Amino acid sequence: MNMTHASLRFAGLAALAFLGLPMLADTARADSEFCIECMEVRVGPPVVVRGPFPDELDAPFTSLQLRDGSFRGFSANGSTYAIDGASLWDLSGPRREVLQAGQPGEESECGRWLTSTIRSGASVLGFVHQESICDYGPQGQTDKTMAIATSTDDGLTWTDLGTVITGPDSPRPGTTSGEGDCTMVDGMDGYLYAYCLRNSDWQTIAARARAAEPAVWHKFHEGGWTEPGLDGEATAIGFLGPGAGYLTQHDRVATITNDPWFGGLRLSLSADKVSFVDIEEPLIAVDGSDWDRPADTDLIAYITIVNPQDGSNAVDDRFVLSYIYIPPGKGFESRYLVHREVALSMQARPLAVQAGVALTRWTAPLHATHVTSTGPLTGDLLGYRRDAIVAYMLTQPPQDAAGVKIAECSRDVSGRLDHVLAEERDCETGGYAWQRTAGWLYGEEQPGTVPVYRCVNVKMETHFASSASDCEGRGAMEYRLGYGLLP
Questions:
Q1: 21 falls within a domain
Q2: Where does the secretion signal sit in this chain (predicted)?
Q3: Are residues 169 and 211 part of one domain?
C-alpha cells in the first residue's frame, strides 16, 4: 500500500494484463435488459482539494457527513488521518491521526489504512487495509490483510473488531502476498460487499458479510459465497479496481478502474455483485499508469466514487469521482486529492459517443493569463479559478467520423507558463513540451457539437480555447482545433 513499493506491485499487474490473462468477469450472467450502451457520462472539471503531500493520500478517499452538515474526510498512508471541512471540496485543513500502525509482529505492524466507511445505526463501520513484514523496495516482502473497525464518534477513535479477510497464500521473501486494498459497499440487500486486490495474480476478488454480522465474511468462489474470509479460496471476477460504490438508481455495484490497455478509467457495472459489464469508452483518457516515479506521464490512482450529499459511496446519477493524482515529471512527494463531478443519464437508444470529459478554461486571479485543460491544475497553477467549460472532449477516437487527437503542451514565457492545445504531432512546434493527452475532437461539425478554437492574447503571451470565433474578445483566433460535445 505504501507508495515506496507500489511500482513493484502495479508493474506486476501491468505485466500480467499485457500477457492477456483474464481481465474481465464472464458477463454471460449479466442481465441483458439493462442498456449500458444507452448510458451517457459527463465528467466535470477537476478540483484539487488537498495536496501536495509526501506522507498522505495512499488509499481510496472515504468520508462522512457530520451532524452539523459538515464533512469529515479520511486520508491514509500507514497512519489514517481525519480532516474536517465544510464540504467535500473543502478539505485543506489540518489533519488528526485516528489509526496508526500496530505492534511488531501484528498483521498491522506496517500501518492501517482506512479505505471505506459505512454508517450502521449510531456507529460507523470502517474497512481497514493492513500490512505486515515491512520490507519495502526491490525484492522486498509484505503481506496484506483487511480488518473491520467500528467508531461511535464519527471516526475520531476506532475499536478493532479483528482481521476478516486474508489470502490463502503464505508470505515468502521477494513477494507481496495476501489480499487487501479493498473497498466496501452496502449492497442494499442486507449484505456488505468487498472488492479486493489478490496479490498472487493481481485480480479482483469479492467477499461479503451480513450487515448485522460485519465481522464474519465469506468469499465468492465457484458460483457461491462459500469460502471463509480468513484464508479461503476465491474466484477471480476480473481486473476491476478495486474502488467500488453503489448506483442506487440503477441498483448496481459500480467499479472504476485505471486500465491503460482500455485507454483510461473504465466504468463497470454489476447487478449480481460479481458479473460486470463495461461502458466501452473511458471516463478519462490516460497516457500511462507508471508507478515508477518520476515519469513522463501523470498518474491517476485509488479511484472511487463519493456521494456529495452524505459522503458515502452509495450514489445517484450525480456523484463525485475521487482519485489521487501525481503530475507528469513528479514523484510521490507530489500527491494531490482530486474530485470531479460526474453526471450519468440514460437515453432512449444506444449512443454513438457515451463519455465526455470537460475541457475547462482557467484564469489567473491577478492577470489575464489562461490555462485550458482536461486535467488538474497543480503546483504554481493551484490559484487559477475556473472560467468556463469550453466543450466536452471525447475520451477515445470517434467511431463514426474523423477525429483529431489533441495534446496539451506548455513552455515558459517570461517566467510564466504558456499552456496550449495542439494536434499531438504539433506539440513541439515553437518550443513547447508535451504534457498529456487532452482527448479527441471531431474533425468536422456533428449534431450536438460546438467548435473549439485555439486563441491567443499576444500582449499577455497566453493561449486559451474558446467556442467563439472572436475568442470572446479576449484575444485573436489562431485556428479551429475541431468540434467537441456541447457543454
A1: no
A2: 1-25
A3: yes
